[in-house]
Every structure is written in structure tokens, then in C-alpha cells.
Design brief:
Layout: H1 2-11, H2 13-17, E1 24-27, E2 31-35, E3 44-49, H3 64-81, E4 87-92, E5 101-106, H4 117-124, E6 128-130, H5 131-141, H6 149-156, H7 172-179
Antiparallel strand pairs: 1-2, 2-3, 3-5, 4-5, 4-6
Length: 182
């Protein structure tokens, strides 16, 4: 029981962080944008919906305007505060934190918090759902087809590959050294 309670408390961390002024970079009536507490790149933000949606699995066609708004606010912030830096905008197929949130992450993938293969693969494989693709799929299909639990595990456990050139590397230290060459 205690383990379940602790896991539940951890997964609700975004709800606490989105109220902490030291992390909040933008807020309005629909969303809060925060600096990621454990960034996986030099620039890593989360755009969190005020609407109580547990995650991407709960998004329906009626949420298209919200997703478009979240992405646009992220792009506005990046344009103003990190001009010239390349970013990816997307959602984890199976998020570990409660509340719908859009990752806004620079493609340098340089951070002390980026430690494991699962961290890496959660942003560099099809586990990471590109925001514009999610919106397009909702518009054309009326729903998002998410990978099942087995496929998510397979994606997170893939061999390490550079996200820029595709070269395979044996471990995280070698990968982190390699990506500095790009």
C-alpha cells in the first residue's frame, strides 16, 4: 500500500510544480508552462493543461483547440526566449506524470538529468508523439492511435542511437560524448 501511495504522489508532481513560481515561465486561463524539474536537454519545458485530463490517452477531437493552443503558446515562448535553438514539441505515448502536458525540448539533448536509455528513447523514438502529428491524426481520424504497453516497452528499450545521425552507441556516456560532435 505504501509503495502505491508514494507512486501516486510522485505522478501528481506536475500539479504541485505548476503552482511553484520558481518553475513557472508562463501562465494563463488555459495552460501553465514550466521549466522541467529534471530537464533532459539544455532547454526543456512542459506546457500543462488546466483542464483535468490525465494524459494524451484522454484526448478527444473536442480537445484539438486546446492542443493547438498549447503548441502555439510553446512556440511563442521559444521564439521570444530561445530564438535560434531547435526544439521538438510532443507528448509521451505513456506519460509517467498525471495531467496532460506537452514537452517542449531542445534537440541538443544535453543534461545531467538525461541518465538512462529509457530517458533517451522517450524523446528520440516513436514513443515521443510529435504534437503536429497528434493534432493531424485527431482531425483526420477523430482519435489518437497510441502504442500498447508492449510496444511502449519495446520503444523505450531499443538500442541507443544518435538522434542526429543514427549511429548506434553502446552506452549513455558514449552517446553523450558523441552528440557533442553535432
Amino acid at each position: 500500500m505504501l509503495k502505491t501511495y508514494i507512486n501516486t504522489m510522485w505522478t501528481l508532481g506536475l500539479l504541485k510544480t505548476m503552482k511553484d513560481p520558481k518553475y513557472v515561465v508562463y501562465s494563463d486561463h488555459k495552460i501553465v508552462m514550466i521549466k522541467d524539474v529534471y530537464p533532459k536537454a539544455k532547454h526543456h519545458y512542459l506546457v500543462i493543461s488546466h483542464e483535468d485530463l490525465a494524459g494524451i490517452k484522454d484526448v478527444k477531437s473536442k480537445h484539438i483547440p486546446l492542443l493547438e493552443y498549447m503548441e502555439q503558446k510553446a512556440k511563442d515562448y521559444v521564439t521570444k526566449n530561445a530564438a535560434g535553438i531547435e526544439f521538438k514539441y510532443g507528448y509521451h505515448s505513456k506519460p509517467s506524470m498525471h495531467r496532460l502536458h506537452l514537452h517542449v525540448i531542445s534537440t541538443d539533448m544535453q543534461s545531467p538529468s538525461l541518465k538512462t536509455k529509457k530517458h533517451w528513447n522517450s524523446f528520440t523514438t516513436k514513443f515521443f508523439l510529435i504534437s503536429k502529428d497528434v493534432i493531424r491524426e485527431l482531425k483526420s481520424e477523430g482519435k489518437i492511435k497510441l502504442p500498447d504497453a508492449t510496444e511502449c516497452e519495446r520503444l523505450l528499450n531499443q538500442d541507443l542511437k544518435c538522434h542526429k545521425c543514427g549511429i548506434a552507441l553502446a552506452n549513455m556516456p558514449k552517446l553523450k560524448d558523441h552528440i557533442l560532435t553535432h
